[in-house]
Specification:
- It contains three helices and five strands; from the N terminus they run βααββββα.
- By secondary structure, it is of the alpha+beta class.
- The protein has one domain: RelE-like (YaeB-like fold, 2-Layer Sandwich).
- Strands 1-5-4-3-2 form a five-stranded mixed β-sheet.
- The radius of gyration is 12 Å and the shape is globular.
- 20% of the residues are buried.
Length: 91
């Protein structure tokens, strides 16, 4: 089991995301629960990022929306960084 650590930026973007996309609230919550259990499950589409975001990871909420994160394996922590559309989180 992993511990989710909400950064201040993630908290702000999550509030905005839920306000803008209330229809995805349940899916968003389900993805967060899945991350706690096992972030490497194939349906989360966990992948490493490149370019300016090299060293960060992302998982999919839907085809269009992502959560960017880092994982500290030794402490079993997942630091949540941002949530939003593909273009928003990969800027």
């Amino acid at each position: 089991m992993y511990t989710l650590v909400w950064s201040a930026g993630f908290t702000r973007s999550a509030e905005k995301f839920i306000k803008t996309h209330p229809d995805l609230r349940e899916k968003f919550a389900a993805v967060l629960r899945e991350l706690e259990n096992d972030p490497f499950r194939p349906h989360l589409k966990y992948h490493q990022l490149s370019g300016n975001l090299k060293g960060f990871k992302a998982v999919s909420i839907t085809y269009s929306y992502r959560i960017t994160l880092t994982i500290v394996v030794s402490d079993k922590e997942i630091i949540l960084l941002d949530v939003g559309s593909h273009d928003e989180v990969y800027r």
